[in-house]
From TrEMBL:
Native organism: Amycolatopsis magusensis
Protein known as: SAM-dependent methyltransferase
The Methyltransferase small domain, residue ranges: 150-261
Keywords: Methyltransferase, Transferase
Keyword Secreted carried by entry: no
Alphabetized Gene3D superfamilies for the sequence: Vaccinia Virus protein VP39
Amino acid sequence: MLSELPARAVRADDALRADTALRHFRRGRPVLWQGDFHGARQLLHAIGRRTRDVPLLKMLLIPLDADYTVPLRRAPDVRAACTEAFGTSTEPKAIPLRELLGVIGAHEWRIKGVDVPVLGAKIHPHYGVFAPIRQEYLDLVAEAPVPEGFTAFDIGTGTGVLAAILARRGARTVIATDVNPRACVCAHENLSRLGYRVEVQERDLFPAGQADLVVCNPPWVPGRAHSELELGIFDSDMLDRFLDQLPQHLTPAGEGWLILSDLAEHLGLRTRESLLESIGRAGLEVVDRLDTRPRHRRAREDETTSLWRLQMARSRPAQ
């Protein structure tokens, strides 16, 4: 995130060593970099080998002029990327290098897009919107059985990629929602570009009414996001809130599709038993589960991504 140039920051250049930088960070003093831009990247990498503490890693700051120019040797032109992420600027600022690298990466993805074979097209993510780099979950949504002429909600649509798949599969109507205004703009642009008639609404979870199919791909890891770029990965309560509210938004024979990796289980942050308890507590039951292995090179070898097909439990009256 952007901040005013910090008065307490240590001014440093390429002579600064990683251990010294960490000592400054642990004393609550950020470093405002004055040296070569690539030297800053090397320093951040060296610090990252010593600690995984995200708040500490964000204390290496890069200066930005009023027009988002980086006044450092060998610095890239980040003006367009920063304007997309933060809007126009009128004052000099500082930004954590870790954040700036994410802004640059998001800008590059937005320009070139992400190939989505199940759509035969590209999706263009915006800054702060989760990009569909891992695509095994898209294949699950493209292959799971759907009734003819179904209506659908896509909860937490992000780039709109799942809404596009549902529309491509013949949904009579699709409503896509997201609490993030950036995501709503991104989804609308992608869906319009692809020619799909999907209504995009800025909402916290559900739109009004019921649907035959309600799809949700919540953040897979319980926890707190440290930046906008992590909002699609970490969340503390979206999963439980989705399950609790799902029954009232399903038609009597409708299904909820929960798309979830078991990564949190491998990390000891959630158990399979607690997930099943949350499903049952919401008055839902599992009618099927489709599993697949991730293909992304950064995924764990023992990780499984699942599409949980949920319906209202037979003992629960339809709402």
